[in-house]
Specification:
The chain is α+β, with helices and mostly antiparallel strands. 40% of the residues lie in helices and 26% in strands. It has 6 helices and 6 strands. A 6-stranded antiparallel sheet has the order 1-2-3-4-5-6.
């Protein structure tokens, strides 16, 4: 009997996480909101969409719900520029000890990025108890199994103190 219950629990976990493991970055989530970054009034940089398993009216950040951010890029971007902008946004929000706490995980995810060509996409998916997965053009690149790191990293765009307040306000309806 104990073996049957154990097998059932293992099977349940595998079935629940299969879409993520197979590289289906938005499976089971619904689009909540979107944002497009345009500079100089006409130069499109990227479009971002927030997905969640929670209703948009109740969505908060940091979240206990499953969330994903999808970025579709409208121009070529060097990975170094992408990584440096992310680090700058985090350094503006967190003290040195917090940055040091997450330094190893931050290095792993930053090392996973690659140069972006027009129409490429990245998805960052936070799944409670599984951490943060990074997908490039629908293929999972890395998973950091640390929920605290996931919330830390997603604060680049969604954090209350993000320097990107226009993105946050557009993506999280309750933050307006």
């Amino acid at each position: 009997m104990k073996k049957s219950v154990f097998k059932f629990l293992i099977l349940s976990v595998l079935v629940a996480t299969a879409p993520i493991a197979q590289g289906v970055p938005l499976a089971g989530l619904q689009e909540v909101s979107s944002y497009r970054l345009t500079v100089l009034g006409y130069l499109k940089i990227f479009s971002a969409s927030l997905y969640s398993d929670a209703s948009s009216a109740s969505l908060e950040f940091p979240s206990e719900s499953e969330v994903a951010l999808k970025f579709v890029y409208h121009r070529n971007i060097d990975r170094k520029e992408l990584v440096n902008r992310g680090i700058t946004a985090l350094e503006k929000q967190f003290d040195q000890s917090t940055m040091e706490r997450f330094a190893a995980a931050l290095q792993k995810i930053n090392d996973s990025y690659q140069d972006i060509s027009k129409n490429d996409s990245y998805v960052l998916r936070f799944t409670p108890n599984l951490g943060l997965s990074l997908f490039f053009n629908e293929n999972r690149v890395i998973n950091i199994p640390d929920d605290d790191f996931a919330r830390f990293y997603l604060s680049i765009w969604l954090g209350k103190s993000t320097p990107n307040q226009s993105i946050r306000k557009s993506l999280i309806p309750s933050s307006k």
